[in-house]
From TrEMBL:
Name of the protein in question: LutB/LldF family L-lactate oxidation iron-sulfur protein
TM region positions: none
Domain of life: Bacteria
Keywords, in A-Z order: 4Fe-4S, Electron transport, Iron, Iron-sulfur, Metal-binding, Repeat, Transport
Organism for this UniProt entry: Oceanisphaera sediminis
Domain 4Fe-4S ferredoxin-type: 298-331
Pfam families, per the entry: Fer4_8, LUD_dom, LutB_C
Keyword match Secreted: no
Amino acid sequence: MHNKPQLFHPQAEAALANPELRANFRGAMDYLRDKRQTAFADPDEESAIRDRAEAIRQRCLSKLPALLEQLEANCIANGIRVHWAENAERANALFADIIQSHGGTQVVKGKSMVSEEIELNHAMATEGIDCLESDMGEYIVQLGDETPSHIIMPAIHKNKQQVADLFAEHVPGFKHTLDVDTLIRTGRNVLREKFRRADIGVSGVNFAVAETGTLCLVENEGNGRMCTTVPEVHIAITGIEKVVEFLADVPPLFSALTRSATGQSITTYFNMISGPRKHDELDGPREVHLVLLDNGRSQAFVDEEMRKTLQCIRCGACMNHCPVYTRIGGHAYGTVYPGPIGKIISPHLMGLEATRELPTASSLCGACGEVCPVRIPIPELLQRLRREAKQEPRPGVPALRGQNSAKSNTEAFIWRSFGLLTRTPALYRMMSWCATRLRGLIPSKLGPWTRCRTAPRPAANTLRELMAKRNK
């Protein structure tokens, strides 16, 4: 199942009409919100953690070009081979070149949303290279030929019955059961053999430390550690915005990430990779590669307001608290990054023309901004994107790819007419006079708007009418 952002409205309608999907999300979102609330039981501590995390991300982004160069230099000094990719096509070409240079055909992947962004699995399949997801949630959605519906828990849209049915269809020898421990054990047994046979290991990166040339990877299942140590070659991929200046910047961001994402004080595994296996070491890859991906991030970076989008540390808290996402799930958005963060980052990755429906898919209730651990002003950025989707580029303001693609000539005419009426006193008075005297022509029902409301009655136009009504 591969949806498209241009079809957001029909996809959302289909999701709303699926009671099983809505029940799955309702239970999962309630659980995640409760976990986060428990992790941030002290409001003062929460505020302090968010302030620190926001300050770190803003400082690092303000120095991004220099930090990327420093990261590259220190990674190379550590023995990591660094590659730059302007877009998804270039990133996939780099992967294919590295894998084929080692005669590889079997790739085992840790969880990486950036690899989903470039559609790595599909691109490698065209080269005859098999990529297996080793994160349990990613493994489940891969079996179902789906995409992740959440950036932290990819298979959150499925219940245990659906997972058991998938295993029964795709895993030889599986005996149908709804026991969760047995289901997890089944997945582990399949993956354990794949780890041993894999030629290449692939992972994402949560934080790339410029000071030391260290790649930090956060996880709970241990599969990330297996992907980065068992195969002879490890390829890490990350967006250019994930670089941080100092190693000391990582613990505050780590605390904000884990508490916001899963309500944990610390994850089960925290991996720090600073190079390939040394001559006197017994395990680890013989080669480590780092692919730094732009893919539209530079567009967000050059705009001071939109740059705040890049502060994101991919915790998913905005999704868990969004009244739209929690009712329709992630697939309705048709993008790799769904929910509130997807609505502000996808226009940079895919262009406003392809994603013009997404900035309007929000109630602007502000819940996403209130829980963001790095204080991204998501509602304000959504409003900015709504304007840019219908406006021509302006002098002094960086243009966005696909800008003005949602412009409506009818809407523009209405606003011009309204502006003319409100700027011209004589026309405004005439409009008011006509509106009050023709109010009887307003239909009693105005379609969907009045299913739970009644049409407003126009206010009295003159003091005489007000006094007459009061004297009755």
